[in-house]
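Hi R.,

Here are the chain sequences for the assembly we discussed:
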Amino acid sequence: MVDGTTGIEARKGWMGLLARARPARLAELLDTLGERPAHAWLRAPEVGGVMVRGRMGGTGAPFNLGEMTVTRCSLRLDGGEVGHAHVQGRGKAHARDAAMVDALMQGSRASQVRAAVIGPLEAEEDARRQARAARAASTKVDFFTMVRGED
Amino acid sequence: MYVAVKGGEKAIDAAHDWLAKERRGDRAVAELSLAQIREQMSLAVNRVMAEGSLFDPDLAALAIKQARGDLIEAIFLIRAYRTTLPRLGASRPVDTGAMRCDRRISATFKDAPGGQVLGPTFDYTHRLAGLQTGGRGGRIRGRVPVCGDATDEAVPKPRITDILGRDGLIQDEPPGEAEPPDMTRAPMDYPAGRALRLQALTRGDEGFLLGMAYSTQRGYGRNHPFVGELRIGTVEVEMEVPELGEAVCVGELTLTECETVNQFAGSKIEPAQFTRGYGLVIGQTERKAISMALVDRALRWEELGEEDSGAPAQDAEFVLGHADNIQATGFLEHIKLPHYVDFQSELELVRRMRAEAAREAAE
Amino acid sequence: MRTEALTGGFADAPVEAAQVFRATLEALARPGRIATVGGAEAPAPVSGAAAVLLLTLCDHETPLFLAPGHDGPEVRDWVSFHTGAPLVGREEATFALGHWPALAPLGAYRIGTPDYPDRSVSLIVEMEALAARGARLTGPGIETEAFLSLPETEAFRRNNARFPLGWDCFFTCGQSLAALPRSTRVEEA
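And here is the predicted structure of the full complex:
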């Protein structure tokens, strides 16, 4: 079981990664582990809205910015491991896959799941972010202020 | 007075049928896919998400397609869908300081720490139709290499206003954790605090806010804005999840943030310093974010001890009461629907008044 | 969070919640009439009827007060996972759950304002027994008179006297549910 302070940090890390993952890619990676384990719903997948908040001036008091769609679910594997998911968008299969990975990460197959699913998702997200950052960096400029004539 | 009318079902069905055919257009032309709209009409998608007040690019693309490109109609569809969603919770306030910036510019400091990053902007294009797309759709020039070093992104991009804040040159943004009011849950209440105003502005109509902001620049409640900083990029959204007793990331979204630095002469109790206007909008929505910051600043006259010059942009009830394009279009467009009975009574009244006037004139 | 807290929700939330909501409306529209509801289970001592009321009516925007006797880690976890309702004191609550004596003092709850009489609490009163006898009920939704085994009459009489302000009540016992809106006149039979 993942528990304790270091455990929860790791778990938050993969839950966020699964929330942001492209649903089709997550399903594809999960398929490499073979047949999906049997599970029972603790909370069937449910599409809802999360009110996103910002801060005045970026650092001040909070205000409501608008919502985003989020799908959540909770399930329990036959082995007793419980998995939760809150994923971006309206994908019920995405939420189920994320909760399944979350549950598997707490059982005996954790290292296998890490290698087959979490690792590749991490690497691909990193690569996407790096590529975008590189593109942004290529548009970095220096402005020169020209001296204006006084006539 | 509203009086129900009946009938017309067949005509309405036929109108819907024709609408569907017109939506599809010439069948000799390939049909648009939702992915095409999402990827290639992304700024329209962004506007629909911002004013629909719901981040979901696929859904916004669908709404645009269904609305035949009428963005206000698409926003209407998003707003209607939004009301069917159970609210799963509220996020922690997003940290725009940690944004992965596609774009980050300052009009006040050319040597802004962290650098000026132009991002995918129209600013320096020639605005000659056809030059970039070549009429052939998305001609991408191959000769400009992506030469940037991604590690540059690791360079922190401190807020420009923090630089002024260190010397006390700009008004403080008092932090807080108060639960903000939510206009989607409780009716608008005037006078509206700044949290409520910002929510109304960020989902308000881009054209309306642009007009209001422009009016302040032209002298109606002038407040001399500089764009201290404009950043566009992605932030992660975290929400407290009871089953974990912790906040977890539930996704990421693109935001545009604009902070303006405005002149303030000072008052009897305060020395001269700069003040702030703030814009934060869903998606890449630069014009809207700048407009929002200008209007936010104009609406702050009272709390900053300024004079009410009577400018429209200083009147919170006027601005917030008319910024919502769905409210506005609903009320505006309803007048084209049958008002036969109302009009009959008006007609009768006018005839009677004319008859009375004619009688009086004859006497 | 313990696994027990994660179980006991609706199996088919949209359908079951709609059914319970309908039963709740009926109960409020016909004060004194006892309905049977079910489909979910919360940790003791929460009754089945109270559990489905919480699942149907509460979410993270409806602060809930758990009265002594009902407040405990198991119930708190269950409520948090299944409804997300923030747990608060009597003063801020939009719903309150407990046995009648534990819900007191009644003066602490919100009764709404003249502009927004709806900004008031709904009390979910857990009962040892619930039957159509006892206090006499008259008023909107009751053709002639109805009877309900209320825990007392005086508090309800005073609550009705300040209409349109005041609180509304649900009574739960096992799978049984009855309601008493603030508009109902209550007197000793």
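Chain C has one domain: 3-128+167-181. Chain C has a mean pLDDT of 95.

Let me know if anything looks off.

Best,
T.
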